[in-house]
Write a structure and sequence with these properties.
The structure is a single chain. The chain is of the alpha/beta class. Helix content is 41%, strand content 19%. It is built from 9 helices and 12 strands. Helix 3 crosses helix 5 and helix 8 packs across helix 9. The mean pLDDT is 97.
């Protein structure tokens, strides 16, 4: 199996130049993925898609994705056009993390639609159909949905590569939806989905994929890991939402466990304090050590 490793950066307006430098560092260190949070209603955060455009221009190899894009505040037509454009500009290095909308009060306060969790899932399924349709040049996109519709809109442009749609799903119905329609699962951080629920969540995705006639192995599984890389070993307990504060070797063991026992193939580090030292330790110490353990499996 091919494993991928990445890092997440919050789009804080306090240090946009620092974020750009960390993205360039991640690229130079050979990391595979860079996620950027998307919370348009947060006053201290920059627009994620604008920042991603800049980071793609700053880098040459790393793939960048919104982690995850807020569908209710963007809409599928705009998301499809922006995603295809970013992918074309970067030579095929954009992926689409997509969320149904988890902050109802904040979304409605910002002018977005007031939807229940069930309505969000319906809207997300309609959106995925529209987005994929708009990525097919020459197609006439016709979708009549409860929340989103397209009345014969011409598709295009096509992205530079087949963009993955990675859903940030949490509940059983949303996880089953991921198994049915998504290219990947961007597992929410443990604050939203505790570690002990990750294996059963994978099982829900797998079963839904099989029932839909899909191969579960075709669905990317991204573990998002919050914590800090320490010099000395610490106590590691994957329970609840406790951050992982451990040495590089212990981090590697956690990753090997999540790959072999829980079913993840991609690992995105969410440093509690994002700086060059933490990113470098992840890229130069944790990732190589994890690959050695994974090669033994």
């Amino acid at each position: 199996m091919s494993y991928r490793f990445g890092v997440q950066l919050a789009p804080s307006t306090d240090d946009l130049s620092g974020i750009r430098e960390l993205a360039r560092l991640a690229d130079r260190e050979g990391l595979d993925l860079l996620g950027v949070q998307d919370h348009p209603y947060a006053g201290g955060l920059a627009d994620t898609f604008s920042l991603i455009a800049t980071l793609l221009a700053d880098t040459t190899q790393i793939r960048i994705f919104p982690d995850v894009a807020s569908l209710p505040l963007r809409g599928p037509g705009v998301i499809a056009k922006a995603a295809a454009t970013l992918d074309l500009l970067s030579g095929g290095r954009f992926e689409l993390g997509l969320g149904a909308g988890g902050y109802r009060q904040a979304i409605t306060a910002f002018g977005g639609p007031d939807r229940t969790a069930g309505q969000n899932q319906v809207a997300l399924e309609e959106a995925v159909e529209i987005i994929r349709g708009l990525w097919r040049p020459g197609a006439s996109v016709r979708v009549t949905g409860e929340h989103y519709s397209m009345a014969g809109v011409h598709g295009g442009p096509a992205p530079a590569h087949p963009i993955g749609i990675w859903l940030g799903s949490v509940g059983p119905k949303a996880l089953a939806q991921t198994g049915r329609i998504a290219d990947g699962w961007a597992a929410p951080i443990p604050h939203y989905l505790p570690y002990e629920k990750w294996r059963e969540s994978q099982d829900i995705i797998d079963q839904a994929a099989i029932e839909a006639g899909r191969q579960p192995s075709d669905i990317t599984r991204i573990a998002q890991l919050v914590g800090h890389i320490t010099d000395a070993p610490g106590e590691v307990v994957l329970r609840g939402e406790a951050p992982i504060r451990a040495s590089a070797g212990q981090w590697a063991e956690v990753i090997a466990h999540l790959a072999t026992e829980v079913g993840f193939d991609s690992f995105v580090y969410w440093p509690e304090h994002a700086d060059a030292a933490q990113l470098t330790a992840w890229a130069r110490e944790v990732v190589p050590a994890a690959r050695v353990l994974l090669d033994k499996e």
